[in-house]
């Protein structure tokens, strides 16, 4: 034991002596400080008891034997606590190491899965994707085709954390290998389904909605693999409609065909894609209703798309006391003349 | 929240009564109990959702695994008494087309009585 | 008391006898009260492992002296099933999560030196030393 600890030990004895005589608060405060120093220096509970026994012996050489035995008994009872404490310290260090490892993985994920909103005149796009923990199991990706079309993928891996993140990288590289501007949404899903079915554990699967916007025709084509249906906002009527989707999640059956849908988009119309982290928000024990999501969107509808999604996220973040239960991704696409 | 998994052996089938929430924390227990039942050829497994208040997508994963297992092992599985919110999850994901689900929603009139 | 003695572990009460012998030898060697208690706890852990998993085995003690220092050598020997993955049982949090006790990492901490060898189907040997300070 080093000098500081020796000092603390001497101090402990002095304080104990003083307290036995005066029962003053000052000594108790003193021992609080000593105890903190002990903790800092990894002094175990049984060592403190041993110190106490020693101090008592010095102060009262004629101490009652019963009391002495009872202190020995207490010391014995503390041994396992000391072990448990050491174990907790080790586990805490391990946890710290794991956390920093995960944060490295998270920043790597950001780089690997990074995507930028394409700049297309007549189209205002906003997107926000926030993981519940450090790693994101939601995914979105933009592709600008040579023909001027915009491909938008949004996916959610069932499950969170590391397995979901690993899975996402696979999806991203599979999509990257497709000549996207030459493949329709339904073909992309059909191909991805095969990749996921072959490569992923049966209890894991992915939902995805893949859409292609053709600016020249103001047309959105999309297909869904079991993904949370998004919404279409009809600006002329001022109404939201759930967009029609039907399709099995990726990775369940080896050969699956997907239906493709078409939507005509007019000036100020919006298409909203999201993951279940948005629709499954909880307010305490209560689940929010779809209506609430749409009401919040309406509240900020006058804002540019990026500000709109950010404000919606902030609303639900606050509603859930700043603790997301699931990854949250919201994407809004608005046509502007 | 917890999940209680109670397996009851009937004359011609196993009834798995679930109560509580199925999420990432409770899913492993459900999997441990459910999968062995589907591994026995000829087994008919009925899963009763009457007291399931919540299920997230992790739960879907369990039922997909169970479905695959029923196909491999020639057993069968049926889900009954699903709450609207949970049924919606099976519908959105397209799983209602490949899993046998009794779509009579809990709380709806049964035999004219509520 | 001989410098080398063993206690056979067959039933739970044998754990107490092993503790007793370990403590007596530790006391005689001049270990502090805290170290005596630590040795006794280590004996418990090793003896309980034998009792729970190996059915039969023994805990042996030996006074160990070199020119510079003296210590207590303690070994646990059993003919049980052996340990499949030693790294795993030596990991913190592996056995303790179920409240089973300090486990082998605990024994390693309580003692100064620790060595373990195990053969599947043949048994496990654990050798430890604690030095008098």
Automatic annotation (TrEMBL), chain A:
The keyword Cell membrane does not apply. Keywords: Hydrolase. PROSITE patterns: PPM_2. Gene3D superfamilies: KaiA/RbsU domain, PPM-type phosphatase domain. Residues 124-335 form the PPM-type phosphatase domain. GO terms for molecular function: phosphatase activity. InterPro entries: Bact_Sigma-Reg (IPR052016), KaiA/RbsU_helical_domain_sf (IPR017944), PPM-type-like_dom_sf (IPR036457), PPM-type_phosphatase-like_dom (IPR001932), PSer_Pase_RsbU_N (IPR014787). PANTHER family: PHOSPHOSERINE PHOSPHATASE RSBU, STAGE II SPORULATION PROTEIN E-RELATED. This is Phosphoserine phosphatase. It comes from Oceanobacillus arenosus. The lineage of its organism: Bacteria, Bacillati, Bacillota, Bacilli, Bacillales.
UniProtKB/TrEMBL annotation, chain B:
Residues 3-114 form the STAS domain. InterPro entries: Anti-sigma_ant, STAS_dom, STAS_dom_sf. Pfam families: STAS. GO terms for molecular function: anti-sigma factor antagonist activity. Keywords: Phosphoprotein. It comes from the Bacteria. SUPFAM superfamilies: SpoIIaa-like. Positive regulator of sigma-B activity. Non-phosphorylated RsbV binds to RsbW, preventing its association with sigma-B. When phosphorylated, releases RsbW, which is then free to complex with and inactivate sigma-B. Belongs to the anti-sigma-factor antagonist family. This is Anti-sigma factor antagonist. It comes from Oceanobacillus arenosus.
Automatic annotation (TrEMBL), chain C:
InterPro entries: HATPase_C_sf (IPR036890), HATPase_dom (IPR003594). It holds the Pfam family HATPase_c. It comes from the Bacteria. Residues 34-133 form the Histidine kinase/HSP90-like ATPase domain. Keywords: ATP-binding, Nucleotide-binding. CDD domains: HATPase_RsbT-like (cd16934). GO terms for molecular function: ATP binding. Gene3D superfamilies: Histidine kinase-like ATPase, C-terminal domain (3.30.565.10). This is ATP-binding protein. It comes from Oceanobacillus arenosus. The lineage of its organism: Bacteria, Bacillati, Bacillota, Bacilli, Bacillales.
